[in-house]
Design a protein that fits this description.
Helix content: 40-55%
Number of domains: 2
Strand order of the largest sheet: 6-5-4-1-2-3-12
CATH architecture of the largest domain: 3-Layer(aba) Sandwich
Radius of gyration: 25 Å
Largest sheet: 7 strands, mixed
Number of helices: 18
Structural class: alpha/beta
Distance between the termini: 39 Å
Shape: elongated
Order of helices and strands: EHEHEHEHHEHHHEHHEEHHHHEHHEEHHE
CATH topology of the largest domain: Rossmann fold
Length: about 400
């Protein structure tokens, strides 16, 4: 057994970032994920550096532990093949708008008629009972809609997006949680169900727990926005030779910090004596910290702060993180020989399990690499598979050498 979801069959009709991140997390936990792709493949196959077309860096990290099956769902034969697979699947995961699923004859009602026990999970822009229901959505749009760029602007000037696909990945994680809980309920009740995971509402839930702030109360008793998070001086601190991340946070941290930096009188200043006062005066404290940390080297501060048990860490770049001593010791970054892409650097599975430990089973697949294998496992005969391939309703992988960009 490889992971707690070993034996769970998932039909993954998602593409881009959000859905594939959700199915990646499920696949890493042992689920058998069939990545259903169009003839053009997932859009992320072409994003970033690659040795062969269709096998980009972004795609490789989002799609390990999955197998690829190309089906033309707009063709009668391809559509019928997927519906036949639904009969023996546990989960159908999709990121198309529900209206598009309905036009394909793949709505929840359609899927439930084939398999009443199916867990049918949709990830899309907006809840289906609101006026935005039919709108398309991407990470940038959802960040903007929830106000993330405005929150960033209080730190750094004009409204700006967070420098990662944060909405996509947060919503993907939420979908993973929802699917797992729906599977748990099915184990208890025997019932499948539809689970809707809209981006707008899910990301608003993620952000507004911090930033509703004074508007938590009716009427409001202050501004929106958690002051400490938005302060422009909440940033890594410059030292004599680099940068450090520091969280001087609870009372004892500040008391120790004032002592070790030679400012014991600040311990008794009512502005800084408790977390309420420090939050109200956070701008003063951030300015103070910035001036203090510039007086010593990174190594000196790490030694001083570690001795005082104050949270501190050296700032990495994505490149220097590869050589971080902790990451090296736990083996988070590994290397894997990919059958078509050569030697790759892999990201580890972050959790440790005492039993049913997950593992890296499959490298990210070439487009249609497992079409024949998956159709066979779902009960199609050789003749049926040949017919799907001849008609173009299904497709197998092309020789990777033909797509080389080297």
């Amino acid at each position: 057994m490889a992971g707690p979801l070993d034996g769970v069959r998932i039909l993954d009709l998602t593409s881009n970032f959000m859905g594939p991140y959700a199915s990646l997390l499920l696949a890493d936990m042992g689920a058998d994920v069939s990545k259903i792709e169009s003839r053009d493949g997932d859009t992320t196959r072409e994003i970033g550096p690659c040795r062969n077309r269709g096998m980009s860096a972004i795609f490789l990290h989002l799609n390990r532990n999955k197998r690829s099956l190309v089906l033309d769902l707009k063709s009668p034969d391809g559509n019928a093949a997927l519906k036949r697979m639904i009969a023996s699947a546990d989960v159908l995961l999709y990121s198309l708008r529900p209206q598009a699923m309905g036009r394909l004859g793949l709505s929840y009602e359609d899927a439930r008629a084939i398999n009443p026990g199916i867990v049918y999970c949709g990830m899309y822009g907006f809840g289906q009972n609101g006026p935005y229901a039919d709108r398309p959505a991407y990470d940038d749009l959802i960040q903007a809609a929830v106000g993330m760029p405005v929150l960033q602007s209080r730190k750094s000037g004009p409204p700006d997006y967070v420098a990662t696909a944060i909405a996509d990945r947060v919503v993907g994680m939420a979908a993973t949680s929802a699917v797992s809980m729906a599977l748990y309920r099915r184990e208890r009740s025997g019932e499948g169900q539809e689970v809707q995971v809209p981006m707008f509402e899910t990301f608003a839930h993620f952000v507004m727990g911090d930033h509703l702030y004074g508007h938590t109360f009716v009427p409001a008793i202050g501004d929106w926005g958690y002051q400490r998070m938005m302060n422009p001086n909440r940033r890594p601190y410059r030292t004599l030779d680099g940068y450090i991340g520091v969280n001087v946070y609870i009372d004892k941290h500040w008391q120790r910090f004032f002592e070790v930096t030679g400012h014991p009188e600040m311990t008794h200043d009512p502005r800084f004596a408790d977390i309420h006062g420090r939050t109200e005066n956070i701008a003063l404290l951030y300015d103070f910290l910035g001036r203090v940390f510039e007086t010593k080297t990174t190594a000196e501060w790490i030694a001083i702060m570690t001795e005082a048990d104050i949270p501190i860490i050296e700032m990495n770049t994505p490149e220097s993180l590869l050589d971080d001593p902790h990451m090296k010791e736990v083996g988070f970054f590994g290397e894997q020989e990919h059958p078509s892409e050569g030697m790759l650097r892999t990201l580890g599975i972050p959790q440790n399990w005492s039993a049913s430990s997950p593992e890296l089973r499959y490298p990210a697949p070439r487009l249609g690499e497992h079409s024949v294998q998956l159709l066979t496992e779902y009960g199609f005969s050789g003749a049926e598979i040949d017919g799907l391939l001849r008609s173009g309703a299904a497709r197998t992988a092309q020789p990777h050498a033909a797509n080389s960009v080297e």
